Amino acid sequence: MARLVECIPNFSCSKEKDEATYNALVETAKSVPGCTLFDAQTDGNHNRCVFTLIGSPEAIEEVAFQLTKVATERIDMNHHKGEHKRMGATDVIPLVPQSKDVTVEECVEMSKRLGQRIWDELKVPSFLYEDSATRPERRNLATCRKGEFEGMPEKLLQPDWAPDFGERKIHPTAGIVAIGARMPLVAFNVNLATSDVEIAKKIAKVIRGSSGGFRSCKAMGFMMEDRGIAQVSMNMVNYEDTPLYVAYEMIKALAERYGTYVLDSEIVGLTPAKAMIDCAEFYLKARDFDCHNQIMEYHLLDMQG
């Protein structure tokens, strides 16, 4: 069985705002042998795109660097505007083991080599986050990103915020990147039938772990300008600890409390099958459901080794 790593890099551009740069990133993602571009999602409101790549450790390490190179050459953060928090042209590079013979520790070493190469060849500094973090406070991506591109020059001069790779100054146009090994997460957004973004922000504050909500939920409220609606945007960093349906039901109840309702929801990028199966089991009230033994595709995967 092939040794596989998943990489989900986020870039501060969108097809809607800069189609040429988006297309250049897509072509680069497809150009490295040994890895496959599974998904590319773009959002003009956030002015951000998210790729999902899977391949051998060596291929993933190479494609992550090549994508960062393209983003560094083409994206000027001094002119970037979008709803999503960001600190760099290549904002974050997560590395996730996807086969039993690839360990988190191996992905941590990949993140370190990648950070060093990005600094040596592109002069873009980086923080290591999640399982790669060199300090406890750097595990949380939101803490690393706090201040964003505009506030990062001052932040890097603070005693505790020297980059893990690079000097205490951002790249003048590409900013700084976060790189790290982590477990799979689900990017899950819930859209509200209101144009009042303050409602989404209040709901996000209630449900996110950092302000006393669900431990494995990171959440923020945004305005979706193209649809004229507010959004609760989440990263479920452990979908078994905090299932999607738990967050959804809480948002639904809070939305009603504020006089609105859930319009729809969306998954950004790929998601583990179990995260969705857990939702089906909950809403169907399936009794004694056995995920592995009662889903045909799991048996087919077992047959294929």
UniProtKB/TrEMBL annotation:
Domain Formiminotransferase N-terminal subdomain: 3-183
Keyword Transmembrane: no
Domain Formiminotransferase C-terminal subdomain: 184-299
Keywords: Cytoplasm, Folate-binding, Histidine metabolism, Transferase
GO terms of biological process kind: L-histidine catabolic process to glutamate and formamide; L-histidine catabolic process to glutamate and formate
Pfam families: FTCD (PF02971), FTCD_N (PF07837)
Keyword match Transferase: yes
Domain of life: Bacteria
GO molecular function terms noted in the UniProt entry: folic acid binding; glutamate formimidoyltransferase activity
Annotated NCBIfam families: FtcD
Name of protein: glutamate formimidoyltransferase
Native source species: Flintibacter faecis
Gene: ftcD
